[in-house]
User: What shape does this take?
Amino acid sequence: MQSEARFVPSGLSARRRCAFLRRLTFLAARQVIPAMPRLLSFSAGAILYEVVDELIPEISSGEHSNIGVVFFTVSLSLMMVLDTVLG
Assistant: This one.
């Protein structure tokens, strides 16, 4: 209840507060939906980096060398582009 106090005007009944929060959520969702492809691609890239870095420890062996992870990501991206272009 305390976290919603920043968004909900004071003095509203429970029913009006719920309606206000529904409208606020609807408006926020309408703003986020157009950005979803970019947000999802960013999160997919972050997950790919973590998976490669953690599950294939030999690829990042050494003094925090990320060159293996970078080459893996570039090669995977190149493979996906060639698969799309050459179909």
